[in-house]
Design a protein that fits this description.
The complex is a heterodimer of chains A (94) and B (207).
Chain A (H helix, E strand, L loop, with lengths): L10 H23 L5 H21 L7 H26 L2
Helix pairs in contact in A: 1-2
Chain B lengths: L2 H4 L9 H32 L1 H8 L4 H26 L3 H31 L7 H4 L3 H37 L8 H26 L2
Helix pairs in contact in B: 2-7, 2-8, 3-7, 4-5, 4-8, 5-7, 7-8
Classes of the chains: A mainly alpha (94), B mainly alpha (207).
């Protein structure tokens, strides 16, 4: 566990991650300006989730830190996803 | 976990891993707070699709896009500041934190003009105009003001945290051997960015 403190992420990685995030943002704006019907929402949410995952893994160091943080975050996301599913089952089939 | 503290020769009670886990636990409560609001938004949008579609056109995509880029860049500068302090480059750390604070301020100024434009047209929570809107429109704008407002409060809290950290880097209280405060304030700032990543498409883009 001692090693987790000493992983230094190179500056270049941060810059590349930032560029990736900006490109994805531009893609979302372009994709939602085209009329895709219901796929608009899907496309925007998939890209947002992708951006969120990149922020969590690189900027928030989940990729480099001890696994325990990754496990905890995954659990919280799983709980949140379960609440969404249950809520929509309720609203769609009541 | 005890192995971590002795190698830094700091005070015996320091446990950076515990501090970081504590910060993450706090972040989880924030994720669930905003997550709950996102679910409220989704359900009301599902029930009022037409009103939400028309109401979203009142928001400026350009403004939202600029603020998204500002937050993404500010997240990168915080991440760079951590790498810089680990390399014992205090000057770069302080420069990056300073840039982050400036970007955060710019975000708030943009938000001020965005909200100000709405207020000028009589659109603010509790206004006559808002009371006379249809159910769907009212829900959209109430959620817009509440969620971006709550996010704005988080920006201010993040600025205070990063400001304190910047001061402590300057005095040397936060340094290359002891930077848990910088890491944890950084985590908070990335959370603020993370929330905006979802707010932007939901309010400004989706139709």
């Amino acid at each position: 566990m001692e090693n987790e403190k000493h992983h230094i992420v190179p500056y270049a990685t941060h810059i590349m991650v930032l560029l990736g995030l900006i490109v994805l943002t531009v893609i979302t704006v372009l994709i939602t300006s085209v009329e895709l019907g219901a796929y608009n929402t899907t496309a925007a949410l998939i890209i947002a989730s992708l951006k969120g995952a990149i922020v969590l893994l690189y900027f928030m160091h989940l990729k480099f830190d001890h696994k325990i943080y990754w496990i905890m975050v995954s659990l919280v996301i799983a709980i949140f996803a379960a609440v969404i599913v249950v809520t929509f089952f309720d609203y769609l089939y009541r | 976990m005890e192995t971590i503290t002795h190698q830094h020769h700091a005070d015996a009670h320091r446990d950076d891993t515990a501090a970081k886990i504590g910060m993450w636990l706090f972040i989880f409560t924030e994720i669930l707070l905003f997550g709950g609001l996102f679910i409220v938004y989704s359900v009301y949008r599902h029930m009022n699709p037409v009103a939400f579609h028309l109401a979203h056109e009142e928001l400026s995509i350009t403004m939202g896009f600029i603020n998204t880029i500002i937050l993404l860049v500010s997240s990168a500068t915080v991440a760079i500041s951590i790498s810089a302090l680990q390399k014992n480059d205090r000057k770069l750390t302080m420069l990056m934190l300073g840039i982050t604070l400036l970007l955060a301020l710019t975000f708030l100024v943009n938000k001020y003009f965005e909200w100000g434009g709405k207020f000028e047209h009589g659109m603010y929570p509790g206004s006559e105009l808002m009371k006379n809107l249809s159910n769907g429109d009212m829900l959209f704008f109430s959620l817009y003001f509440f969620m971006t407002g709550l996010h704005g409060v988080h920006i201010i809290v993040g600025m205070v945290l990063l400001g304190i950290t910047l001061y402590k880097v300057k005095t040397g209280a936060v340094n290359s051997g002891k930077y848990a405060l910088l890491e944890n304030s950084g985590l908070y700032w990335h959370l603020v960015d993370l929330i905006w990543i979802f707010l932007f498409p939901l309010f400004y883009l989706i139709h």
